[in-house]
Each structure stands twice: as structure tokens, then as C-alpha cells.
Specification:
This protein is mainly α. Helices cover about 75% and strands about 0% of the residues. It has one domain.
Length: about 230
């Protein structure tokens, strides 16, 4: 009986932390939706034509020794700060020794940064339903106790809490899943744009094939290998 009492005590102790966590997770998912809308708005003018024009202009600027102009051209098709920083690195690292490997490292770090950004909502996809399930089961114990004692009010109140947390948890998971799917596509396309720019601005055009990604899957995108063959 001591084990059962201990487990009941743990369950009771988790009641309010679980309820508060479920509300925080729901609020977090709503905030992520707002951030996603802003990300989509920034990319509303994205097109393959604008990317090609920006990369072509950057090539011309580099040929003329205008590094600032090349960075400015690529910034016009950079849709986030990490993307802009990586585009800048593609230009500034070109004159350095072993430029291909240096740029490859920046591309890999950019990809990992995108994956880390995706983890925020991927966690909510699992955490929301888990908190909802815990929030459903925890109030059932006092609800059944109220039923046994004929206390209909206590039974009703606890069942309302249980069903409310269930809905909140499922809603959190659904919203986070949708955000994750859309961001997965957005960030994969961002990475593809950066990769295109890096391939076309390679220090030696005959080495540009080294910028083609390997087919090693990692999360939502592919990793890049720019080492010498």
C-alpha cells in the first residue's frame, strides 16, 4: 500500500504543474504560428528568377572586385539573419585558402541551425498530447473518489478539467505539427537557395561540382560536401 500511496502522492503533486505546462505549451504554439506568418510574409516575393538575378549580379560584382556589392545583391534574396550571414560568408571566404571546405562548414552550420529552429515546434508535437493525456488521467482519481462518495460536484469539476486539458493538448500538437511541416519546406528551400549561390560563386568554376549535396539525409535537408575529390 505504501507504493500505491506514493504514486497517488506523485500524481497529486503533478496536477498543477501539468495544467500550467499545458497552458504554456498552447500559448507557445500560438506564438509560433505568429512567427511563422511573419516568416511567410518575408518570403512573399521569393522566386527563382530573383534568385538567379541576384547571384548573377553577385558574380559580376565579384569579378569587378566589389565584395560589398556582391553581399548586397545576395542580401536581397536572404530571408532570415542566418541565411544572410551564410550568404555573406560565401562571398567573404572565397579569397581564403581552402575556401571550398570553409564554405562547406558554413553551409553545414546553417543547416544545423535550421534543424535547431525546427526542434522548438517538433517538441510541442509530442509534448502537447503527452501533457493532455497526463492532465486527463490525473483528475480522474479525485473524480472517481467523488463518485464513490456521491459527490457529484467534485466528479463534474474534475471531469471538466480532464476533458479541457485533453483538448488543449491535442490542439497544441496539431498546431505545432502544421507549423513544423510548413517550416520544414521553407527552411529546405532556404538551404537550396544558399547552396545554389555557393555553387555558382565557387572560387574555381571547375570545382563547382563539389558543391552538389551528398544524398545524406539529416532532418529536413541534405548535408553538403565541398571537399576536394
Amino acid at each position: 500500500m505504501q507504493i500505491e500511496e506514493f504514486l497517488f502522492s506523485v500524481s497529486d503533486a503533478l496536477r498543477w504543474p501539468v495544467l500550467v505546462s499545458a497552458l504554456i505549451a498552447l500559448a507557445w504554439s500560438v506564438v509560433e504560428i505568429g512567427i511563422l506568418v511573419a516568416e511567410l510574409w518575408r518570403r512573399r516575393w521569393r522566386s527563382i528568377g530573383s534568385l538567379e538575378s541576384a547571384v548573377d549580379q553577385a558574380e559580376i560584382d565579384i569579378a569587378q572586385g566589389d565584395q560589398i556589392g556582391a553581399i548586397s545583391a545576395l542580401s536581397s534574396v536572404s530571408w532570415s539573419r542566418p541565411m544572410r550571414d551564410t550568404m555573406t560568408a560565401v562571398v567573404t571566404l572565397r579569397p581564403l585558402p581552402d575556401a571550398e571546405n570553409r564554405i562547406a562548414k558554413r553551409l553545414a552550420d546553417y543547416d544545423y541551425n535550421s534543424l535547431r529552429r525546427l526542434e522548438r515546434t517538433r517538441i510541442l508535437v509530442r509534448m502537447g498530447p503527452a501533457l493532455g493525456l497526463m492532465g486527463t488521467l490525473i483528475p480522474l482519481s479525485p473524480a472517481l473518489g467523488g463518485l464513490a462518495e456521491g459527490n457529484v460536484t467534485e466528479l463534474t469539476d474534475n471531469l471538466r478539467v480532464a476533458f479541457g486539458v485533453t483538448v488543449a493538448g491535442l490542439l497544441t500538437g496539431a498546431l505545432a505539427f502544421g507549423v513544423s511541416l510548413i517550416r520544414d519546406r521553407l527552411y529546405a528551400q532556404d538551404f537550396s537557395d544558399v547552396e545554389y549561390a555557393a555553387a555558382n560563386l565557387a572560387p574555381d568554376k571547375h570545382l563547382a561540382h563539389n558543391l552538389v549535396p551528398s544524398t545524406v539525409e539529416h532532418g529536413h535537408s541534405t548535408q553538403v560536401s565541398m571537399g576536394n575529390p
